[in-house]
Amino acid sequence: MENGIEVERVAGGIDVLTLRGEHDLSTATDVSRRIESALESASGLAIDLSETTFIDSAVLRVLITAQERATERGAGFAIAVADSSGHGVHRLLALTGLDSKLATRPSREDAIAAAAAA
Length: 118
Prior knowledge:
This protein is of the alpha/beta class. It has four helices and five strands, in the order ββαβαβαβα. It has helices at residues 25-41, 57-73, 88-96, 108-117; strands at residues 4-10, 14-23, 44-55, 76-80, 104-105. The chain has a five-stranded mixed β-sheet. Helix 1 runs parallel beside helix 2 (57-73). The longest helix has 17 residues, at 25-41.
């Protein structure tokens, strides 16, 4: 799987940031920049990690900060994480306890709906 970052605007003015492959310190700044840009213009942000195979602590920090900024701005926010024990990102969030602190949803569609409802 090729690494990548995509942002698309969907109905309701929600931006969806999709991360594919592995993301770590080397991509954290780019991910953060794209999140900031989305939060400036979108009514909500859904981050899709369902095709993400690895994230490190730098990207975890970006996700935590993104949720805090969305809350400060009154924007909707949710993260789609495949809800299976075999998914590395889901396992990492569970091990760190961040699955209960971050607004996670089991699918892209659920994350978009949650970001739109906020």
